[in-house]
Amino acid sequence: MATATDAEAEAHRLRARSLTLAHGRVPVVRGLDVELPPRRVTAIVGPNGCGKSTLLGGLARLMAPHEGAVLLDGRELASIPTREVARTIGLLPQSATAPDGLTVRDLVRYGRRPHQGLLRQWSRADADAVEGALEAADLGELADRPLETLSGGQRQRAWIAMAVAQDTAILMLDEPTSALDIGHQLEVLETVRSLAARGRTVVLVLHDLTTACRYADHLLAMSEGRIVAQGAPAEIMTTDLVRTLYGVESVILTDPVHGTPVVCPTALTAGPAAERAGRKAS
Q1: Is 200 left (phi over 0), alpha (psi -120 to 50) or beta?
Q2: Is the model more confident about 180 or about 2?
Q3: What are the residue boundaries of the ABC transporter domain, all occurrences included (predicted)?
């Protein structure tokens, strides 16, 4: 299938250096230093409003740095031509929409747009990339179905296939499992794992800590616009971290099948997150 090779994925390294991102004059992400492990799945976790989606947008160049920089292979992302960025970094936003009647194959074809131009029209390579993306997302039998006839998990996999067809070494997904039931979440996350196994660097925003620990190789834990912990799930997922992030007490167990941390919240505890929860309830 058409996919970034291991060598290509290894070559593209994305990191943030003293990165601050702001909405207007209000900083949302503050002074972050982050490097994404190549050819791995990184999950960004943390409470609502902590800056997860903002960080993802900054890493994908949807937001310009207020301070600091995002570097791609040592070059400032802001200085790289847009088409080159689009051929290296793909982003699937949280709320993606498409017109009624669009088939899965039509949607996936949109992923090839960064590769088109005045001197380069649709080619066999583009067709092969589309077929490869459909295969990667296990959508071959659904390729000619309209999107509105699919289940939630199937639709989300179709959007991921579009991003795969873009043939970027780095793929970013903002809450790809939101509003999906457990079965459809597994469909999407197994697809994500298979993409990393084929050589892509994947970054996604997730809310559920247990799910993040199972499917991610690397976690970035955020609170109030800052990274409070980063590393392998088994190394950083502790009761202290859960308390810092969410203001809850918890028990950390081990998944008997996968050997990954299972986070079991037990009660609210005193602290900023608990105070926020109390204010919302009042």
Answers
A1: beta
A2: 180
A3: 14-249
Q: What is the largest CA-CA distance in the chain?
A: 62
**pLDDT mean across residues, the chain:** 88
Domain boundaries defined on the chain: 4-279
- For residues 103 and 86, what is the distance between their CA atoms, to the nearest angstrom? 23
CB 188 within 8 A of CB 179: no
**For residue 280, is pLDDT > 90?**
no
Supply 223's token pair: 């609170």
pLDDT per residue over 91-114, tens digit each?
988 877 888 899 999 999 988 888
DSSP string, 4-24: --HHHHHH--EEEEEEEEEET
Listed in sequence order, the DSSP H helices in 93-218 are 104-109, 124-136, 152-165, 182-197, 209-215
Element spanning 272, H or E: helix 272-281
102/32 Cα distance (integer angstroms): 40
pLDDT value of residue 275: 58
- Rounded to 5 degrees, φ, ψ at 91 are -130, 125
What does the pLDDT read at residue 47? 97
Local structure of residue 103 (DSSP, 8 states): B
**pLDDT number for residue 257:** 97
Closest CA to 217 of 185, 239, 195, 244: 195
Nearest-angstrom CA–CA distance, 35 and 43: 13
Quote the pTM value.
Answer: 0.84
Q: What is the CA radius of gyration of the chain?
A: 19
CB count, 10 Å around CB of 207? Answer: 15
Q: What is the CATH number of domain 4-279?
A: 3.40.50.300
Q: What b/e sequence results for 247-260 when a residue is b if at least 16 CB atoms lie within 10 Å of its CB, and e otherwise?
A: bbebebeeeeeeeb
